[in-house]
Amino acid sequence: MPEKVTNLSEIYEKSHKRIFDFLYKYTQNADTAMDLMQDSFLSFHKHYGNAGLSLDRAIMVLYTIARNLSINYAKKFSTSKELSSGEIELHSHNPDLETHAEYQDLEDRLYSFLNELSEEERSALLLKNVEGFQLAQIAEILNVSVSTASRLVIRANEKILSIAKRENLVPD
Q: What gap in Å lies between CA 67 and CA 125, rounded to an integer?
């Protein structure tokens, strides 16, 4: 049986970077991700602080809270990414910098495709491909069956591939 963990600071130390990364990939905004991460830990402390959950179970609950908060945030606020002048200026003749900028642009475009997925598909895809969770864990976080989690991941991958083809990022 997994060891019971009641120390919130231990849970925070083991999971805050992963929760932040998940939320950042979901929101594409560092400040929003940080706010949602803090809200996730506060909600966890309020509702599960004395539940004596194992570390693994506590992290799963945190992902569920983080996902729900990000969905609520997305419904409440319309977000659009604005380009700063620093992102526009790329007049370097440094091949490494140009290659890095091209990869960064590709990554930004791929993450923008996430907005075309449903909330469940986006969450499933991020949890599987970015966070590395197994389907059973994804099912628990999303509160769906394992087969539904599998279908969500497959459907999200298919949609992302279709969008990438539409945007000429991959050959037909």
A: 12
- pLDDT tens per residue, range 3-25: 555 588 889 999 999 999 989 88
The CA distance from 68 to 66, in Å, is 5
Query: Are the C-beta atoms of residues 149 and 155 closer than 8 Å to each other?
Result: no
State the CB neighbour count (10 A cutoff) for residue 24. Answer: 18
- Report pTM: 0.67
d(Cα 116, Cα 152) in Å, to the nearest integer? 14
Q: Which of 96, 98, 6, 89 is nearest to 44 (CA)?
A: 6
Measured from the Cβ of residue 83, the count of other Cβ atoms closer than 10 Å reads 7
Three-class DSSP labels, 138-157: HHHHHCCCHHHHHHHHHHHH
8-state DSSP, 49 = T
Structure tokens, 116: 């075309």
